[in-house]
Design goal:
The chain has five helices and five strands; from the N terminus they run H-E-E-E-E-H-H-H-E-H. By secondary structure, the protein is α+β, with helices and mostly antiparallel strands. A five-stranded antiparallel β-sheet has the order 4-3-2-1-5.
């Protein structure tokens, strides 16, 4: 049976935001709708750092992933893929740990809390860097073929930012808010509890 005795209101808010951030970022990474272009048949062509969908509906299910890591178009997108994967793993680990902390009394001591919150901050940093360097890969020939010759670094040409990229930005902001709640709560307490 779960006991909530070691949690306070900021801890519940931190847990809720951590879980929401992990879910939204994971969904944003999974779908390839980072950059989109309308297709002739009314569907949407979509592309992300590691997947391409041609002629699918508004939500890109059943898309093709690159066959190998070397097939990813640009070094920026390769770095982005690695950082997004590591960041997502950290956010999921933080979310699961925070949920487990709801059920285990006094699970979190100072060392565990610092590790968990530092992991969340590191995940946010990985996501921010990934979201910033992703547009640097728009000057690759494959992206120019997809988005038109006017596309280049930080210029989408005939494409637009997709909903999955925006969702990932939102999840990153939520994770940053969660991390700041935990650090601010720590500063105002004599005895450290999560967050």
């Amino acid at each position: 049976m779960c006991r909530f005795t070691s949690y306070n209101l900021p801890s519940f808010v931190w847990t809720f935001l951590s879980v929401i951030a992990a879910i939204t970022c994971s969904i944003g990474i999974y779908f390839s709708n980072w950059i989109e272009r309308d297709a002739v048949n009314g569907n949407v062509n979509a592309m992300s750092s590691y997947r391409v969908c041609i002629g699918h509906g508004k939500i890109s299910l059943g898309c093709d992933s690159y066959l190998s890591f070397g097939d990813i178009f640009s070094p920026e997108w390769q770095a982005c893929t690695i950082m997004l994967g590591c960041g997502a793993c950290l956010l999921i680990l933080v979310a699961l740990t925070s949920l487990f902390g709801l059920c285990v009394r006094k699970l979190f001591n100072l060392v565990i809390c610092i590790i968990i919150v530092s992991s969340q901050v590191l995940a946010v940093l990985l996501f921010v860097v990934s979201l910033v360097i992703f547009p640097a890969g728009w000057d690759e020939p494959e992206v120019q073929e997809f988005c038109g010759t006017d596309s280049g670094s930080y210029n989408l040409g005939d494409c637009r930012i997709g909903w999955a990229y925006i969702l990932t930005i939102g999840g990153t902001v939520i994770a940053a808010v969660a991390a700041s709640i935990s650090w601010c709560t720590k500063k105002h307490k004599d005895e450290y509890e999560l967050p």
